[in-house]
Design goal:
By secondary structure, the chain is an alpha+beta fold. It contains six helices and ten strands, in the order αββββββββββααααα. The longest helix has 31 residues, at 135-165. The radius of gyration is 21 Å and the shape is elongated.
């Protein structure tokens, strides 16, 4: 039932494309643009390439983040995110976070899912290549990202719990909480920046956790 309503909302956000050509990915767009591809065979037996293009800073005219669908390099449709684009055999589901994409999958009619292939020139494509060519280094980077996010979650919890515990009804019920950790401003800033970098790295791999990535930032 929940998926049914999500799909209906996504259908309302869908707008027809204008047919313009897909713009080439440029090196300066590494962290501001995501580009993913999917090759599918239609009912007529012809293979076609579907491309998802997302600018994470939003559209120039209104600042809204939208996903754009291209078919063989021509603009087919657009939608605010989260987006769902009907394609042969299923749909392409796209969702964003504050740090990039958290979902860009081909979902078949029977519920199977495959992640789209990142453009090799994009940040996600370069991160995927690092994972293939240097798997040990890739795992180490992924582990560091998780540690940075765990530290960010802990820091945010301490900063939230202390003032909340000083509210009179809360203080009367459970007592006041004094944080055992007092960090200098520079370290607070450094940990916050580290958590943001960790989420940005995970977004390149389409990894997202509401607890880690959501609560740490």
């Amino acid at each position: 039932m929940l998926d049914h309503w999500r799909n209906r909302l996504a259908a309302r956000r869908l707008r027809e494309g204008d047919g313009h050509a897909l713009r080439r990915f440029r090196w300066w767009q590494l962290f501001g643009r995501s580009l993913f591809h999917l090759r599918l065979t239609g009912d007529d037996g012809r293979e076609a390439e579907y491309t998802i293009d997302v600018r994470h800073q939003g559209e120039p005219e209104d600042g809204v983040v939208r996903a754009h669908l291209y078919l063989d390099g021509r603009h087919r449709a657009r939608s605010k995110t989260p987006a769902s684009f009907p394609v042969p055999g299923g749909r392409i589901a796209v969702a964003t976070s504050g740090f990039g994409l958290k979902r860009c999958h081909y979902v078949t009619d029977d519920g199977a899912e495959w992640r789209l292939i990142p453009d090799p020139r994009s940040g996600a494509g370069r991160r995927a290549r690092l994972g293939r060519e240097h798997p040990a280094l890739s795992r180490w980077i992924g582990a560091v990202s998780v540690v940075l996010l765990i530290l960010g979650v802990g820091l945010n919890l301490l900063q939230i719990i202390e003032p909340v515990s000083q509210i009179p009804p809360v203080q009367e019920a459970v007592g006041a909480f004094a944080s055992p950790v007092r960090l200098p401003l520079w370290l607070n800033i450094a940990l916050g920046a580290g958590a943001a970098l960790g989420s940005a790295e995970r977004a390149l791999r389409l990894r997202y956790s509401w607890l880690l990535d959501g609560a740490a930032n």
